[in-house]
């Protein structure tokens, strides 16, 4: 089963992708995680990616496509994968289609998590992440036991640069301009599946399973 998750930043894609990975036995590939690993380095690629991430802009297609191509050709993706954060533009979507068609493994479905802008701002601007183990907290919905301290490792909790409200709103503008056209692209291809991402996590997960279980039963995973 080869899936992508669509939706604005803060739609809950990472949370639901992890659940999909566990239930259906396919790797969760987060381009955000890949970029964060790259940003820990001090090389030319890291400097290029950092410039775009810190400004809230999208990383150029040619860089992202090559990173994703390498990842989905690793052995753990033989049974499929779920992409979280890619594609974000039509050129990226076409590039992914070309890669999958060349492999003889077309896309199974594109899951779209619909959320309002204010929901996104609330979710992301209140999010905190551990500097050491990368555990994620939310000041309202999942606060740490001790303010500013990670429950798991005792590390310092920080706000990511791209979670600041002004950056979040800039990211949403970029999303609307460049990524929303993907909805019609995948709708025309007959693979778009829409889910209400404003609902509680368990309700969203229930809707996703109602979509994916039939695909799994007919052997698409």
Index terms:
8 strands, single chain, alpha/beta, globular, 5-stranded parallel sheet, 221 residues, Rossmann fold
Give your account of this protein's structure:
By secondary structure, the chain is an alpha/beta fold. It has a domain at 2-116 and 179-217: P-loop containing nucleotide triphosphate hydrolases (Rossmann fold), CATH 3.40.50.300. The chain has helices spanning 13-24, 31-39, 44-55, 61-72, 90-103, 117-125, 165-179, 181-188, 201-217; strands spanning 2-6, 28-30, 81-84, 109-114, 127-130, 136-138, 157-158, 192-196. Strand 5 (127-130) and strand 6 form a beta hairpin. Helix 4 (61-72) runs parallel beside helix 5 (90-103). The relative contact order is 0.19. The model has no long low-confidence stretch (mean pLDDT 91).
Topology:
Blueprint: E1 2-6, H1 13-24, E2 28-30, H2 31-39, H3 44-55, H4 61-72, E3 81-84, H5 90-103, E4 109-114, H6 117-125, E5 127-130, E6 136-138, E7 157-158, H7 165-179, H8 181-188, E8 192-196, H9 201-217
Parallel strand pairs: 1-3, 1-4, 2-3, 4-8
Antiparallel strand pairs: 5-6, 5-7
Count of helical segments? Answer: 9
CATH superfamily of the domain at 2-116 and 179-217: P-loop containing nucleotide triphosphate hydrolases
Principal-axis shape equals globular
Provide the spatial order of strands within the biggest beta sheet.
2-3-1-4-8
CATH class category label of the domain at 2-116 and 179-217: Alpha Beta
Q: H/E element string?
A: EHEHHHEHEHEEEHHEH
Q: Give the averaged pLDDT, no decimals.
A: 91
CATH architecture group name of the domain at 2-116 and 179-217? 3-Layer(aba) Sandwich
Task: Specify Rg, calculated over alpha carbons.
Answer: 17 Å
The residue fraction in helices comes out at 40-55%
CATH topology of the domain at 2-116 and 179-217: Rossmann fold
What is the end-to-end distance? Answer: 4 Å
Low-confidence stretches: none
Largest sheet: 5 strands, parallel
> What would you call the quaternary organization?
single chain
Strand content: 5-15%
